């Protein structure tokens, strides 16, 4: 293996200039993305030898979480630039289940374009540095009580399992006809996901918000294990059935049927999480064991009220939001140290601001921040609390602080899909919609049964990058999941108008008015967290001709 290469070299009919990220074929330049050039340099350095996918991840994306698809796309782009293909490869050979190998000789040109040669290793590092700088999430320290104790921001691009076993938790099924207990099935699912997500030896892919829907089995091929469960409450008795299944073989690894007093709910949840970890032979640290045994509250009645409030909050309607707020307060009355109940209060107040339900939106938003800070002060070890405070900061257009908080949430729970999703949404708000898709793809991968919001954020980003087709696909997916979402309708109308489909855009404008008869884009933007004037103007530009503005 060669330890150094000249600044220019030849592969077949291509002349390569790494410092410029360019290939030349018959004098015609072909520009490569920095990460694609870095991949080529790594393969050249190991010419004739197989470079494993793990080694490529380690060298090209050090300290950054990326998916297998990220590497696959880089290989596709490199092959395209070289006129190569996986089926008939002249340059880059895929070694099944191992990695990639460069299969052409590397030669030095007799007539170099450059005037000097450089050592290959520094050149590779420079290219890699360009990759990291181009793809990273950039944030800076801003002294504030919200972030004073939070470490430097983590660079997060896309999620990789890093060789860890992957598991999905399907929504628990509620047995019986008492649908008023759906919140219980939802709570058991969410808390099991949260408990298992905190184990460093496991990657969890599951639903944090969608209940009453079977997981799409076609999406389970990327996970090794799945947990399915059923729950029924009868008076003060609780019945729970849990199965741990190996996806590929369909083999049942563990199953248990519990019947306990409802007041033993917390003990039961801990037992289920610990049994799954034991069955999978996971290495669980003492600190992780303690976290599994620690619930958000020691009061079962407060917890039950919290679950009811959470289910109402997801309805995202004013009446349900008001009812959720009252129930959160009841939970706090039973347990004044219930951090997640304070976080729920914060979200209900933020919803009043964002949806313009409050008589004074600024007061509602400040109340949201106070509640979120209270939650964080009570328990700084809950990732959802950082997410809530980040969301409130985003509504206040304090996006740098929000990104720092989300990074902290991900450091506590590396499978926290909602944190990746909100991070992606913030990049669009700040005028960098091209940074959004990779984060949303990570979120969807971690939570394949996500609700409409993830697809709305993707559709919104693609609108601003000018990819109308992808925008339409994702906005329609969002509306399939939530036909009454106002923001998705707004962006769909803008996309239709931008594509020249004026009549379809007019129809969407009518749908917007049916949801809010006095809708005005200028008023709506008053509480919209967008800080990019260019993107705000782009949205207005396409909505004004539809009569959605007084201008």
Task: Please specify the SSE layout and strand pairing.
Blueprint: E1 9-11, E2 14-17, E3 22-25, E4 28-31, H1 34-45, E5 50-52, H2 53-60, H3 68-81, E6 92-95, E7 99-102, E8 106-107, H4 120-135, E9 166-169, E10 173-174, H5 182-197, E11 203-206, E12 225-234, E13 237-246, E14 252-261, H6 265-279, H7 286-293, H8 300-313, H9 318-334, H10 339-354, H11 361-378, H12 383-395, H13 399-412, H14 417-429, H15 436-446, H16 452-465, H17 468-481, H18 486-498, H19 502-515, H20 521-525, H21 533-543
Helix pairs in contact: 1-3, 1-4, 5-6, 5-8, 8-9, 8-10, 9-10, 10-11, 10-12, 11-12, 12-13, 13-14, 14-15, 14-16, 15-16, 16-17, 16-18, 17-18, 18-19, 18-21
CATH level-1 class of the domain at 166-293: Alpha Beta
Structural class: alpha+beta
State the CATH architecture of the domain at 166-293.
Answer: 3-Layer(aba) Sandwich
Helical fraction equals: 40-55%
CATH topology name of the domain at 166-293: Rossmann fold
Shape: globular
Number of helices: 21
**Percent of residues in β-strands:** 5-15%
Distance between the termini: 66 Å
CATH H-level name of the domain at 166-293... which superfamily? TolB, N-terminal domain
> C-alpha Rg, in Å?
26 Å
Count of individual beta strands? 14
Largest sheet: 6 strands, mixed
Mean pLDDT over the full residue set: 81
The poorly predicted ranges are 115-145, 147-160, 207-221
Oligomer: single chain
